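Sat 14:20. Reprocessing the chain from the morning session after the first attempt stalled halfway. Input below, unchanged.
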Amino acid sequence: MSLILNCSPTWPAGSQLVKGYFCHMFIKPFPKYNSTTKERYTIYRLCESYRLNGQTRHRTIVGLGKLDELATDDQKKLLGKRIEEIIKHGAGLLINELADEQVEKLAMHYYELIKRKRRYDVKTNGAQWETVNIASMKNSDAREIGAEWLCKQAFDQLGIDNFLKQQKWPKDKRSLAATHIISRAVYPASELKTVSFVKENSAISEITGVEKSHFTKDQLYKISHALYSIKDKLEQYLSRRTNDMFDLEDKIILYDLTNTYFEGRMKNSKLAKFGRSKEKRKDAKLIVFAAVINQEGFLKYTGIFEGNTADSKTLGTIIDKLSIQTSFVERKPIIVMDAGISTDGNLKMLKAKGYNYVCVSRSSLKKYHADTTSKPVEIKDKRSQPIELMKVWVDNDDDHYLWVKSKTKALKENSMNGLLSQRFEEGIQSISEGINKKGGIKKLNKVFERLGRLKQKYPSVHKYYEIIIQDDGKGTATSISCQHKNGEDPDEKAGIYFLRTTLDEAQESTIWAIYNIIREIESTFRILKTDLDLRPIYHKTDDASMAHLNLGLLAYWLVSTIRFQLKQKGFTHDWREIVRMMNTQKCVSTSVENIEDKIITVRQCTEPTKNVKQIYDLLNYKYVPFHRKKSVVPPTEIFKNDSS
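Finished this time. Tokens:
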């Protein structure tokens, strides 16, 4: 016996439609025999018949069991028709008026089974009407998804997953790497806190496919070390990838160093050393981090040095690796660096290797001449403050120099000089009081010691003072005084410094513009240390510390890729502000009971706000990772003929 009804087919993979094609869905009986109980019985299956390439074929859609609830063959036929109606028109429309309550219940049960197991191409587009109990509506599992989805699209744009696939990394390992890198960009924290973030706050696991129930900090430690093991390959790939994506040529290269400190003794470390901390942490061991970036802010090469390494000692190690990391072949980029690196030895080395450079002169020029072939020019900085530029030349020097006077810098130095001068004069006054009071320091050699320590403390201002110490000829000081030297005023030189370059540019503003790009590397270090939390380091071993720093650099690739594209469109917000705006987009589950006591649960992303939409639009990114995930849980009623 067969119950036949018409429907829309699900086409088998690779099938071809031929003339005269037709399909039928029908309930087909299958006689069975139980050799143990000697019982004969019949089970039913919902099947589809179709003709492919002239041949008739069948396939089973879903098993229906014995259908003991339906007493007659007519009811079984109505069941097949009702399933067809639900598939084609939805549960709310009842075309077959003869279907009874039992048929309706079974039809809905098997329809949900077909949809859940994806046994048929059930159309769910368009309006889906349900009668629900509003009082039962609940929102749950609300998680942040905006910043995570933004970074995931940058991650895919950079092709990091494809690169890891080429390195023979399995899917679960690549998903874990994506989760860790994106989490570092969005929520920079320790591995332990990152686990809590992924499990409790973020929807990142729904984007990357990581199973959060088995997510542990040990997995994060392990994947960090795995990523560090391919640091050079991945860094070189990303360097070339961003050049290709944005048509960059690496005409200008910026080089600078910074350091970060450890919270801990790092007793057995080969890298952690005491040195000159830029955070004024004299009590903590340091590690020196060197970065080469292009003028667009993308990393070209990074290196790690011992904490007591002088800035000027690192350039030679880095410069030979530039050709590997950047896109130039015959043309070499212009190297831009700060005064700490631009020693005479480094500049000679760059010239010998054929590199042009722009840097700040390490010493203030005393004997220089104005270039009569050019005129001084005045430009404005980003705060509309005037900056004077003038080309000068120095005897017996092939380099070109640019005299720079900044009003903003002058005001700052004048203020600082005034404060330091005041403190220096107060120090002289303290020495004088010691000489004049009973029991004070009067011995001449001790007075000179105090004066020496005072000069050492204020090296930038003591040279502008003439200090006179009088004594009684018996080794006892009687007085001390100081006054400004004639013609020596620190305020007159405030705000003046010199740029040094091998470039013979006709326009002073061109040299200034090239040097001013060094602000980009300052921004890079600020993002790495503050926004991506590379300062301080809490790890206790060198390997773990290197993996920690490398993870922050990988997160920075996402940040720089996003911010570069936004800045090209005039959107210049910093990374923290971008994350704050993106965190307004959430992912939430809404559940409600319908008229049949079924629990309908919808997992959906909230609509992006105006600012979030603007960011997505400027980047040409998608608004949401998924539109809607729907599940229906029927009431807890078990059918004895349920074959599932």
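The mean pLDDT is 83.
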